[in-house]
Specification:
The complex is a heterotrimer of chains A (303), B (286) and C (635). Chain A is α/β, with parallel strands linked by helices. Chain A contains nine helices and 14 strands. Chain A folds into two domains: 142 residues, Rossmann fold (3-Layer(aba) Sandwich); 148 residues, Gcn5-related N-acetyltransferase (GNAT) (Aminopeptidase, 3-Layer(aba) Sandwich), CATH 3.40.630.30. In chain A, the strands form three sheets. A seven-stranded mixed β-sheet of chain A has the order 8-9-10-11-12-14-13, sandwiched between helices. Chain B is mainly alpha-helical and 286 residues long. Helices cover 74% and strands 1% of the residues of chain B. Chain C has 635 residues and is an all-alpha fold. Chain C has a domain of 257 residues. Chain C is built from 25 helices and five strands. Classes of the chains: A alpha/beta (303), B mainly alpha (286), C mainly alpha (635). Strand 1 of chain B pairs parallel with strand 3 of chain C, so a sheet runs across the interface.
Chain lengths: 303, 286, 635
């Protein structure tokens, strides 16, 4: 057992619970149950936590909160749905504003039944989560070591939501680089990206059923425009970006040139595409310090 | 600086994290027992840190963790300086420098919770700094040296000359050990108001570094406490550990104070006891 | 002509040229040339043999010069009197009448009988001061060229009197050289009064009511000090010492039996220095002086003119050493340091923060002078050097920020690290220089603490609380600079080279002087202390090495940015999960979008300005009275 499973830190979120399960979660910390015996700490901060404990059902008010909190947790992480409401929506499932259990929003790894869930059950759930955590850690290690190959396939409209979500996570880094959080990849809405599906071809990279990267492209005249190449932060440096690029080029074999652009500070992007024989065709000043760098590569069909 | 001192200093750099980690583990067990619980294994702090090392590192601003690295470096430097028998004033200044890197890291993270944690940490630093400096001044008045190596080899225990300063120092020691009632900036128990205060935005390796820095810090703080009892080494070590136990007891019996109380009470106590003690010393030693 | 005379006369003449220069271009050119010349001349002082060790003006008929000075002095008095009466300022009127009357009586009755062996002199302490005036002062003048252009663009309501402005600035520089080179106290007093006048004119530069009132406040407080100065000279000459020469005064102070003849004059002149150095209870004039354009604040009110006050106090330190009056001076300095630092916590206007911190640090130097031991003086001189450089850098940076962003409130300075990266880094270095190990001011504070525990440990109480407060207000400001919550606005591109050059040089100096401080101490401070006290102090080799290691480690910090952004994942700050697409906006109750705000603590309750000022003034007035009493009784 690695130290990971000896030190599971918990983050507890009360979605729309009646407080029944929450009382029981707190009961686990009391001297009778004393979960600190297993190194379990209730942190109250997603950034420190390994286990996301959700009580209560998901509704319109809290769905984004749950998504945000999940995104703000560091990998490897697991989600435990505590109580019947978090598992399926429970008796509130039919309510007009209730979407159902936590798994409507985030991938749930362990379900703890009960109304309210008993402390023993919660502790059991967390201990089971440790097993999942351990597996995820191994998988992440394998992925990081390049032992797992992503499959590249064409994305469909059903993937739009997941792609948008990943896009927003991946482009944070770019936004921080330029200190501009109003860049288009971050502000794009679901409807807009769905509209893009009508005009552009989307490719996605998938590992274990999860999307870890994507790119899109379309023909404009005789040139192929490639846009928004990104790879999930945990899966970078494994050639996924390069493979996505090759694949999207192959999707448009008829084009004479392949065009794309990036910011002058995004050295890694520029490095990646330069390795694929792209050359800087021109630059355009956005403001004093930021330039848009256009890169181009000749297609097979060219003259 | 003799070879011996260099050796002690090197030993500190190597052993302090282990000692500090075990001390933290013991602390958690004692705390649990005081609350009628069993508590985690004694090696739990090491599990926590090893786990953090394996986690992904999240940041809000990309440069924030660089400050944490320098916090750790300067904490180690400070402790090494102390155990090498260096100048006490320089030691205090180095400690301040380290603390400032920590605070700046939290400011850099640009998040409301880390911001308020940083401000509170600063208030804490402002609260404890006067008496720490006054302790050095008092020690100098008695031993005629600012060097730790001279102070530690002084023939009698300093506490008999400076009980007032020691009491005031004991009061602010609670701040330095990050114990209730003065755990304003990053309390484990304040997540309702602070989330995690100054450490909110740090995760993975950065959080592990913060934890290790605290282990280093706790060890040289105990070393500082020992200076007051150094006249009798055996009794000194025992008393120093008693003080640590006493701090755990205080931690478990007091609710968290507001910053006003923290600042005002620690300054009032430092001012009054420190002044009286120093005036008394200047007459006694004349 | 002699170098010392040149340094006094060159600024004066170039100032006059600026006054009559036909256009901005010509004048700006003149400013730059004159500044370079002054820097060159000051550096010449460092070369052994370039300036004579002691210098007499006997062959130039100092009689005529004395008469000229007397007439000029009366002219200044008349001008001040006119200004006072026109603005109906009663206190200042009374003070100028008293002062001018006393001096006129003295000069007319005894003036012919006074013989002076040396009118000007130079020693390592004067050289230190001359470097500060010559190099830092000139850099500020160059900076002012760029700054004043922006200033008048932004403040259309202020009448453009730049020719006059630079004229006063350069006359002031000349007078400052006079102050530090004068051995004849009557000369010193003359230059002293010119600096008061320049300060008065420059504070009132904007011409609005607040500026004029503040100018008069500065005037009457400095006139009160000046009155003390004049009384000190008169007493010195009419008493058993029977001299008007500074070196004679110091010589007499060395002999215990002769001390009574010189102690009261020394205390009175130090009193003038304390008023000039804005010690409590006189600190309010310096705060008011912040209405002046920033180069004025940097030049007069932090780097040079107020340093004249502490310079004279440090000069007289050997006389004050071990006396009760000296101890009281130290207490006042210590109280000013502590209370000044406390009040700074409650300030958010960057210039006021700098002003209060200046008052506090000058208090520390006055404390050193009051203690008067060689260790204390060693620390005091170090403080003068480091403070001048770092504080000047900070003032100039704040000036640039103020001009470019339109605000000098610290609360508006977040995101500065990306909006004005270079200026922000320079400010951070300046602040580190002000309070952080292993930089300059901290080295000095360390030395002060050592000096105090050897002399009077009780004063350590004032220092330790004061420096804890210092830590708080500097770090929260540093934190503000590096916090990033607003979107980027590039503000730095229009900063002119007139501003860049001084900023860069001062930044280099802040780090350089800190790295080279053992050298600085050996070249400037040790010879002075050896000559004055017969022994000197220093930091031990081991500690210097440790400081050097710390400096090296701190310097590594920028290097760590090579690792910037590697192996990290950028996420939003924790906002209870209610984040939106914009990093600093969250969804509040009922779905309303809220922007996060991060504001520093100002702690109005324990550290409020009004209450602490009153407390400070009340206590320091009491100590001032005790000081005078002790000096009269010669305890």
């Amino acid at each position: 057992m690695s130290s990971l499973s000896k030190s599971p830190w918990i983050f507890h979120y009360d979605a729309s619970s009646c407080n029944g399960c929450d009382i029981e979660v707190l009961a686990c910390l009391t001297p009778i149950y004393d979960v600190e015996r297993f190194g379990i700490v209730n942190t109250g901060n997603p950034k420190h936590a390994d286990i996301f404990l959700i009580t209560g059902s998901v509704n319109e008010q809290n769905k984004e909160v749950i998504q945000n909190l999940y995104n703000q947790m560091a990998d490897p992480k697991v989600v435990v749905a505590v109580g019947i409401c978090a598992t399926s929506g429970g008796i509130f499932a039919e309510c007009y504003n209730v979407m159902g259990g936590a798994d409507k929003i985030v991938p749930v790894d362990v379900y703890v039944p009960g109304c309210a869930a008993r402390p023993e059950a919660i502790i059991d759930g967390v201990v089971r989560a440790l097993g999942v955590l351990e597996e995820k850690r191994k998988r992440i290690k394998e992925i990081a070591a390049g032992q797992v190959t992503a499959t590249i396939e064409r994305a469909s409209l059903d993937d739009a939501e997941k792609i948008l979500e990943l896009q927003k996570i991946a482009y944070r880094s770019e936004a921080e680089l330029y200190n501009d959080f109003s860049i288009e990849p971050l502000t794009q809405s679901l409807d807009e990206i769905k509209a893009d599906f009508a005009t552009r071809t989307f490719l996605k990279a998938v590992i274990d059923g999860n999307i870890v990267g994507a790119v899109r492209g379309y023909m404009k005249g005789t040139a192929c425009r490639i846009e928004r190449l990104f790879v999930a932060p945990g899966s970078q440096n494994q050639g996924i970006g390069t493979r996505l690029m090759r694949e999207i080029e192959a999707t448009f074999p008829e084009s004479e040139t392949y065009d794309l652009f990036t910011g002058n500070r995004s050295k890694r992007n520029i490095f990646l595409v330069k390795k694929l024989n792209y050359k800087i065709s021109r630059t355009e000043k956005v403001n004093k310090r930021v330039e848009r760098v256009y890169l181009q590569k000749a297609g097979q069909n060219r003259g | 600086m003799s070879m011996n001192l260099v050796l002690i200093s090197a030993l500190y750099v190597i052993l302090a994290p282990f000692l500090g980690g075990i001390l933290a583990g013991v602390d958690r067990i004692i705390t649990a027992r005081m609350q009628g619980r069993v508590g985690p294994p004694v090696l739990q702090p090491f599990y926590d840190v090893l786990k953090l090392m394996q986690k992904e590192t999240l940041v809000v601003r990309k440069s924030q963790n660089l400050y944490i690295l320098f916090f750790l470096i300067f904490i180690i430097f400070t402790g090494a300086l102390f155990f090498a028998g260096g100048d006490l004033l320089l030691f205090i200044f180095a400690l301040t420098l380290a603390g400032i890197f920590f605070v700046l890291a939290a400011y850099k993270a640009s998040s409301p919770y880390s911001f308020i944690g940083a401000e509170r940490e600063l208030i804490q630093m402002m609260s404890y700094e006067p008496i720490v400096l006054l302790s050095a001044v008092g020690m100098y008045m008695v031993t005629k040296s600012f060097y730790v190596c001279d102070i530690v080899s002084f023939h009698t225990s300093l506490i008999s000359y400076m009980p007032g300063i020691f009491l005031a120092f004991l009061y602010v020691l609670t701040i330095k050990f990050r114990k209730s009632p003065f755990d304003l900036s990053m309390s484990h128990h304040a997540h309702q108001e602070l989330v995690k205060g100054i450490t909110t935005e740090f995760s993975g390796r950065a959080l592990a570094m913060i934890e290790i820095a605290h282990w280093y810090e706790n060890i040289f703080l105990l070393g500082f406490v020992y200076l007051f009892f150094a006249g009798n080494p055996v009794l000194g070590v025992v008393l120093t550990l008693c003080i640590y136990f006493f701090e755990i007891l205080i931690d478990n019996t007091f609710a968290r104070a507001k910053w006003q109380l923290t600042l005002n009470s620690s300054w009032a106590i430092s001012g009054v006891l420190g002044l009286v003690n120093i005036i008394a010393l200047s007459y006694v030693l004349k | 002509m002699n170098l010392l005379v040149l340094l006094i006369v060159v600024p004066l003449i170039s100032g006059l040229l600026m006054l009559v220069s036909p256009g901005n271009g010509v004048r700006n050119f003149l400013v730059r040339v004159a500044s370079m010349l002054l820097i060159a001349l000051s550096v010449l002082l460092l070369i052994p043999g370039a300036a004579p060790g002691l210098f007499s003006l006997a062959d130039i008929h100092s009689e005529h010069i004395n008469q000229g000075m007397f007439i000029a002095e009366m002219g200044i008095a008349l001008y001040i009197l006119y200004a006072c009466i026109r603005n109906r300022k009663i206190i200042a009127t009374v003070l100028i009448l008293l002062q001018a009357g006393l001096l006129a009586y003295f000069e007319l009755k005894y003036g012919h009988g006074i013989t002076v062996a040396r009118n000007l002199f130079i020693d390592p302490l004067s050289v230190v001061m001359a470097q500060i005036i010559g190099i830092i002062g000139s850099l500020i003048c160059i900076y002012a060229v760029g700054y004043m252009k922006d200033f008048h663009e932004h403040h259309a309501e202020v009448k453009d009197k730049r020719n006059f402005f630079f004229f006063v600035l350069f006359v002031f520089l000349g007078a400052m050289f006079g102050v530090v080179f004068a051995n004849n106290l009557l000369w010193l007093y003359f230059f002293w009064e010119i600096t008061t006048l320049c300060s008065f004119l420059l504070i009132g530069y904007k011409g609005d009511e607040v500026s004029v009132n503040n100018a008069f406040r500065a005037l009457w407080m400095n006139l009160l000090g000046g009155l003390g100065f004049a009384a000190g000279i008169v007493y010195l000459y009419l008493g058993s010492a029977h001299t008007v020469e500074l070196d004679q005064l110091l010589l007499l102070g060395k002999t215990a039996t002769l001390l009574p003849a010189v102690l009261l004059p020394a205390v009175l002149i130090t009193f003038a220095g304390m008023a000039k150095a804005a010690q409590m209870p006189f600190s309010s004039w310096l705060l008011g002086a912040m209405v002046a354009p920033t180069p004025v604040s940097a030049l007069l009110h932090s780097s040079t003119m107020v340093k004249a006050g502490v310079y004279i106090a440090i000069r007289l330190a050997p006389v004050l050493q071990g006396t009760s009056a000296g101890f009281m001076i130290a207490v006042i300095g210590g109280l000013t340091f502590m209370i000044g630092s406390f009040i700074t916590i409650s300030q958010s206007d960057a210039k006021k923060v700098l002003a209060y911190s200046t008052v506090a640090n000058l208090g520390l130097i006055i404390l050193c002078a009051g203690i008067g031991t060689y260790e204390a003086v060693w620390a005091g001189i170090l403080l003068i050097i480091f403070h001048a450089i770092s504080k000047c850098l900070l003032f100039l940076c704040v000036g640039v920020v103020d001009n470019k962003s339109g605000s000098r409130d610290i609360e508006d300075m977040d995101t500065l690290i990306i909006n004005m990266p270079k200026v922000a880094v320079m400010m951070l270095i300046g602040m580190a220089g002000m309070f952080l190990a292993p930089f300059g001011m901290l080295i000095s504070k360390w030395a002060v603490l050592r000096a105090i525990v050897d002399a009077s440990p009780v004063l350590a109480i004032l220092i330790v609380f004061g420096s804890a407060a210092t830590l708080f207000f500097w770090v929260k400001w540093m934190g503000k600079l590096i916090t990033v919550i607003e979107p980027r606005h590039d503000l730095e591109d229009t900063v002119s080279s007139n501003e860049w050059v001084p900023l860069v040089l001062l930044t280099v100096a802040t780090i350089g002087v800190c790295g080279l401080f053992p050298l600085v101490a050996a070249v400037f401070i040790d010879p002075y202390l050896m000559a004055t006290y017969g022994h000197t102090t220093a930091m031990t080799q081991g500690n210097i090495i440790i400081m050097a290691i710390m400096l090296a480690l701190v310097m590594l910090f920028p290097l760590s940015f090579l690792n910037y952004g590697k192996n990290v994942k950028v996420v939003d700050p924790y906002l209870g999960g209610a984040n939106t697409n914009t990093a600093n906006v969250f969804t509040g109750s009922a779905g309303a979008l809220q922007t996060i705000g991060m504001r520093n603590y100002y702690m109005e309750w324990p550290f409020g300005e009004a209450k602490l000022s009153r407390l400070g003034i009340a206590t320091t007035v009491v100590f001032l009275l005790i000081m005078l009493g002790a000096a009269i009784l010669c305890l």
